Amino acid sequence: MKRARLFLLFATYVLSAASITAEPLTTPIDPTQLPQVKRTPQQKYLTSIDAYRLLERDPDILFVDVRDPVEVMIYGHPRFIDAIVPVRAQSTEFDDDLKQWVLKDNPNFVMYMDQALDHYGKTRDDMIIVTCGSGWRSAEAARQLHEAGFTDVWHIPDGYEGEDRKGFNIHNAWQLAGLPWSYDRVHGSQRLRIIR
User: Fold this and answer.
1) Which residues are CB-contacts of 101 (< 8 A; sequence separation ≥ 6)?
2) Is residue 191 part of a domain?
3) In the structure, what pLDDT confidence band is assigned to residue 111 with cuts at 50, 70 and 90?
């Protein structure tokens, strides 16, 4: 009798877990409320909190940080990150007006994403979540991946650190939501030389 109850409990758990992953995922974000720079062709958006909950339930989803590795080294990264593949990277060019190093497009971004897919045994049709600091680079990454034939790319518009307005991060980004983050090494990351 005890075995039958355990089996029934296990079967209920398996079926409920299957129903969670079998349900089509819908975006909790209204794209019309996003600035144009954060909109993507596939219109698949997740808040940081929703992405965290989804990754807790299904850690096999590929989660990629598209920030520059130097930025990740300084500020850390969200828990569950599988790879760091910069869509734009620090260059040797300094912008005197902005008082910062210029980010340049990574010409190998899609190739490195394909390598990350291979590393994790994924295809261009598997679900991928991309994030960055404030949501504009991950939107760019999602656009490039869509153009390259990736079919299920989700983007986190609020990003890891949030948007900086007058010196304050004001949106409910990964860190501001109190979600776990780390400085730990990410094993699926691509090392990238400075783009000149």
Assistant:
1) 90, 91, 92, 93, 94, 95
2) no
3) very high
